[in-house]
Automatic annotation (TrEMBL):
<dbReference type="InterPro" id="IPR009051">
    <property type="entry name" value="Helical_ferredxn"/>
</dbReference>
<dbReference type="InterPro" id="IPR004113">
    <property type="entry name" value="FAD-bd_oxidored_4_C"/>
</dbReference>
<dbReference type="GO" id="GO:0051536">
    <property type="term" value="F:iron-sulfur cluster binding"/>
</dbReference>
<feature type="domain" description="4Fe-4S ferredoxin-type">
    <location>
        <begin position="108"/>
        <end position="187"/>
    </location>
</feature>
<dbReference type="GO" id="GO:0003824">
    <property type="term" value="F:catalytic activity"/>
</dbReference>
<dbReference type="GO" id="GO:0050660">
    <property type="term" value="F:flavin adenine dinucleotide binding"/>
</dbReference>
<feature type="domain" description="FAD-binding oxidoreductase/transferase type 4 C-terminal">
    <location>
        <begin position="3"/>
        <end position="63"/>
    </location>
</feature>
<dbReference type="Pfam" id="PF13183">
    <property type="entry name" value="Fer4_8"/>
</dbReference>
<keyword id="KW-0285">Flavoprotein</keyword>
<protein>
    <submittedName>
        <fullName>FAD-linked oxidase</fullName>
    </submittedName>
</protein>
<dbReference type="Pfam" id="PF02913">
    <property type="entry name" value="FAD-oxidase_C"/>
</dbReference>
<dbReference type="InterPro" id="IPR016164">
    <property type="entry name" value="FAD-linked_Oxase-like_C"/>
</dbReference>
<keyword id="KW-0274">FAD</keyword>
<dbReference type="InterPro" id="IPR051914">
    <property type="entry name" value="FAD-linked_OxidoTrans_Type4"/>
</dbReference>
<dbReference type="InterPro" id="IPR017896">
    <property type="entry name" value="4Fe4S_Fe-S-bd"/>
</dbReference>
């Protein structure tokens, strides 16, 4: 990253010369641009400095190609400058290249902060808070990346608190990808959230949540009997119980929907229960999975659905590849 920056500056300086421009800056020349100045441009300053400060007491050796009497023979540009910030940037570039943090930072760096993603985001609920729109989650992610880099550079170890905040941002996303369409720079925060969760899992910082674990177990199950058993418990019993609770406690649930509490950090158990029942689960679901209805549960065969009486070998057929959850 730093090498690319140095090369870009050198190209810009050459281009400025070629277009008859001058090497200058809003705060003067300084040591950053000294190497691009010619001897003729530096000579008036050197002569003046020699005349008013012949012993080199003021900023000894600064901005001079030829060190004066008593000055150390050191380059006056960035070659020997003590620049801890540049040194940290060197470490930062290595960390960014060697970790998944770099990919996450790169995926959100083009954000314009325009907020066009807010109206379509499922986790942006202004009545509760203004923290979890994609725009603000990108701001939070950028700040957390800076915190990670600082702690890695200073060898302090990444704070557990920062991992918790990172997980809080990643979990406030339904991965619906609706934010992609209005985004002028096409940032899909659903994909960013998945990358953040994968990083948390890889670093062993992902919190265990029974609901998440049960849902992932159900979606990852491949054995037909396991799917039937889990489906009977989660869909056959769980959905019915949730719908019944919604009917019984509808008044209490509506109160939370009208004035939702701030969704910052883990909610109390009471609020979690109310939130769980205030959105009614779907009813009238099929008694069997799509695979069971089509009798294609045998994993040793690729299902080809067609009517053998009305088709020939040249007729188009449908290959059935169920998506995530669609056959559950």
């Amino acid at each position: 990253m730093l090498q690319t920056a140095h090369e870009a500056v050198a190209r810009i300086m050459k281009l400025a010369r070629r277009l008859d421009g001058v090497i200058s800056g809003e705060h003067g020349i300084g040591i950053t641009k000294l190497e691009f100045l010619s001897d003729d441009e530096l000579r008036p300053f050197a002569e003046y400095k020699q005349r008013v400060d012949p012993e080199g007491r003021f900023n000894k050796g600064k901005l001079l190609r030829e060190p004066g009497a008593g000055a150390q023979s050191l380059h006056a540009d960035l070659t020997n400058a003590y620049t801890p910030s540049f040194g940290l940037m060197g470490h930062e570039s290595i960390i960014m290249q060697q970790s998944d943090i770099g990919a996450i930072a790169d995926s959100v760096k083009d954000c314009l902060r325009c907020g066009k993603c807010k109206p379509v985001c499922a986790t942006h609920v202004p009545r509760a808070n203004l923290l979890y729109s994609p725009r603000n989650k990108i701001l939070a992610t950028s700040l957390l990346v800076e915190a990670f880099l600082y702690e890695e550079q200073t060898r302090r170890g990444v704070s557990i608190k920062h991992w918790e905040e990172f997980e809080d941002v990643a979990d406030h996303c339904t991965v619906c990808h609706k934010c992609l369409t209005p985004c002028p720079v096409k940032i899909d925060f659903g994909d960013v959230s998945m990358n953040m969760r994968n990083l948390l899992r890889k670093m062993g910082q992902k919190s265990f949540r029974p609901g998440n674990a049960a849902a992932m177990f159900f979606l990852n199950a491949t054995n037909p009997q396991t799917i039937k058993t889990v489906r009977a418990g989660m869909v056959g019993i769980g959905f019915k119980a949730q719908r019944m609770a919604n009917d019984l406690l509808r008044g209490l649930a509506k109160k939370q929907t009208a004035a939702p509490p701030a969704s910052l950090g883990p909610a109390p158990v009471k609020e979690q229960v109310i939130h769980f029942i205030n959105k009614k689960m779907p009813g009238n679901l099929p008694k069997k999975t799509a695979r069971a209805l089509l009798d294609i549960e045998d994993a040793d065969y690729v299902p080809i659905i067609r009517n053998p009486k009305a088709t020939t070998s040249e007729t188009e057929a449908v290959f059935y590849f169920p998506g995530c959850g669609s056959e559950r």
